[in-house]
């Protein structure tokens, strides 16, 4: 006999475990299936441990510039093994936290490889090879994604790394090639550059962090070059070969010329592949688009009772998007099961913030200026530099700017784009504004505390109206 539940969640990443908790909160008998570690990639091998590494790099950078603050630091250095150990310790602590949350919410945890065997049925193969049969009216698929390999150079963990290898490096790279300048690539480029590696970034698009506003991309590229990185945009890696001494990479630059370059290591950060193989999706006829599951705004697939959230669905592929979808799916399921007290809401991708934790940080929400114009909006744009903010100057962090894009006719906030210290914390102010459908006047009439970095958000809005104060 199969163990029977109201809901089974396949995958325990930031989408899956949040979905399971919300289901349990709503009184649904819930199980979660995980093949590796509770918390998934984000918590164990992604978002959290990388931020621990970047925090180490930030402190090391500040120590190297202690004299600027009137401080003296001697014998500066780092122990790479201890740096990695701290990062893994942070991940372990949070993994244990998720384990506690499962127990607290009385969620049944089944460790093993899960696969759908029929509608409403799922089999879990444990480490001992034995299968446990589960059944539920509703199944949420949250199996996430993995790093995409280059077709001509599979990551080996020795010289050619994915993000996972880069988090537990066997040695410190001396000359590092980073292929791809999205959030993952740029964060690792920033980390290793701050620890002293000579870093080269290759990006096929004509600018770094290409999903961001063009002005942010331009500013970041100049900053990274100033820090000593080599940035090659509009370029590609035609071949990548590893040997005992390092990496031989043939790079074709934007002028069409190809040349071989040597590096000690390479990080491949060219996108993700959804984990949709071998989990029984083909048996149920679930509709996909290039390997990603297609869903409606409530996270339903085309097969009744099968739901999908997170990185196996449409972009943006972000942990907080997955978590929010987990709540949406849980509440929609509860509503279908007769709970009239829940009112699930559809996800609006334009209200999902994006953050990149390089130095300087990058954060944004909504449309870029170019995308807003392409969509037919007549725009008003405001921009304010960090150098005009007292708190930024006091912190010694005067590099960056805040940019806001408004609809000139309605005052709607179309997008906000930031680069500089702690902007990943600031962006939530604009995200709340977009969700609440605040307009330009609402931001102008809001009192921002002084002295804070958030004052730049106010000044940027004022600038869109030609009312900026401090520049």
CATH top-level class of the largest domain: Alpha Beta
Query: Which term fits the overall shape?
Result: globular
Contiguous runs where pLDDT drops below 50 for at least 5 residues: none
Secondary structure: helix percent: 25-40%
Write a structural description:
This protein has 471 residues and is α/β, with parallel strands linked by helices. The protein has 3 domains: 3-146 and 273-336, FAD/NAD(P)-binding domain (3-Layer(bba) Sandwich); 160-270, FAD/NAD(P)-binding domain, CATH 3.50.50.60; 360-464, FAD/NAD-linked reductase, C-terminal dimerisation domain (Enolase-like, domain 1, 2-Layer Sandwich), CATH 3.30.390.30. Helix content is 32%, strand content 26%. It contains 14 helices and 24 strands. The protein has helices at 16-25, 40-45, 47-64, 80-104, 163-167, 183-194, 214-226, 281-284, 319-336, 369-374, 390-395, 423-435, 440-444, 455-464; strands at 3-10, 30-34, 108-111, 113-118, 121-125, 131-141, 145-147, 160-161, 175-179, 198-203, 230-233, 236-243, 246-252, 258-263, 265-268, 272-274, 288-289, 292-293, 306-308, 354-356, 362-366, 379-385, 401-407, 413-419. Strands 1, 2, 3, 4, 5, 6 and 19 form a 7-stranded mixed beta sheet that branches. Strands 8-15-9-10-11 form a 5-stranded parallel beta sheet. Helix 1 links the parallel strand 1 (3-10) and strand 2. Helix 3 runs antiparallel to helix 4 and helix 3 (47-64) packs parallel to helix 6. It is globular and about 70 Å long. It starts with a strand and ends in a 7-residue tail after the last helix. The model has no long low-confidence stretch (mean pLDDT 96).
């Amino acid at each position: 006999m199969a163990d029977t539940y109201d809901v089974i969640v396949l995958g325990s990443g930031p989408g899956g475990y949040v979905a399971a908790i919300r289901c349990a909160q709503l009184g649904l008998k819930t199980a979660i299936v995980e093949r590796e570690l509770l918390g998934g990639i984000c918590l164990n091998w992604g978002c959290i441990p990388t931020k621990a590494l970047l925090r180490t790099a930030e402190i090391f950078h500040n120590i190297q510039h202690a004299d600027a603050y009137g401080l003296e630091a001697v014998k500066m250095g780092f122990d790479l093994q201890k740096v990695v150990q701290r990062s893994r310790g942070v991940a372990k602590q949070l993994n244990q936290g998720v384990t506690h949350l499962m127990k607290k919410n009385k969620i049944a945890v089944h460790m093993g490889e899960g696969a759908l065997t029929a509608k409403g049925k799922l089999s879990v193969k444990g480490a001992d090879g034995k299968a446990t049969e589960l059944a539920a009216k509703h199944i949420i698929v949250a199996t996430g994604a993995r790093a995409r390999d280059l077709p001509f150079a599979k990551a080996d963990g020795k010289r050619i790394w994915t993000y996972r290898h880069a988090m537990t490096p066997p040695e410190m790279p001396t000359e590092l090639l980073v292929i791809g300048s999205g959030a993952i690539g740029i964060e690792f480029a920033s980390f290793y550059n701050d620890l002293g590696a000579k870093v080269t970034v290759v990006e096929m698009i004509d600018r770094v962090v290409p999903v961001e506003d063009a002005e942010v991309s331009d500013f970041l590229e100049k900053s990274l070059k100033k820090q000593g990185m080599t940035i090659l945009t509009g370029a590609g890696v035609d071949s990548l070969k590893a040997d005992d001494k390092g990496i031989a990479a043939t790079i074709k630059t934007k002028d069409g010329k190809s040349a071989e370059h040597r590096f000690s290591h390479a990080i491949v950060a060219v996108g993700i592949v959804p984990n949709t193989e071998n989990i029984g999706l083909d048996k149920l006829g679930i509709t996909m688009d290039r390997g990603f599951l297609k869903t409606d705004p409530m996270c339903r697939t085309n097969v009744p009772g099968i739901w999908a959230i997170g990185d196996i669905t449409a972009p943006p592929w972000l942990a907080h998007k997955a978590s929010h979808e987990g709540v949406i799916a849980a509440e929609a399921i509860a509503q279908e099961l007769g709970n009239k007290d829940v009112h699930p809401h559809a996800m609006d991708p334009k209200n999902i913030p994006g953050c990149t934790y390089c130095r300087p940080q990058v954060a944004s929400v909504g449309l870029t200026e170019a995308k807003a114009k392409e969509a037919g909006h007549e725009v008003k744009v405001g921009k304010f530099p960090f150098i005009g903010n007292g708190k930024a100057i006091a912190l010694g962090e005067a590099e960056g700017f805040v940019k806001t894009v408004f609809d000139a006719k309605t005052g709607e906030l179309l997008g906000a784009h930031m680069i500089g210290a702690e902007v990943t914390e600031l962006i939530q102010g604009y995200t709340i504004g977009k969700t609440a459908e605040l307009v330009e006047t609402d931001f102008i009439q809001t009192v921002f505390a002084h002295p804070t970095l958030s004052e730049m958000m106010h000044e940027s809005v004022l600038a869109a109206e030609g009312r900026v104060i401090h520049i």
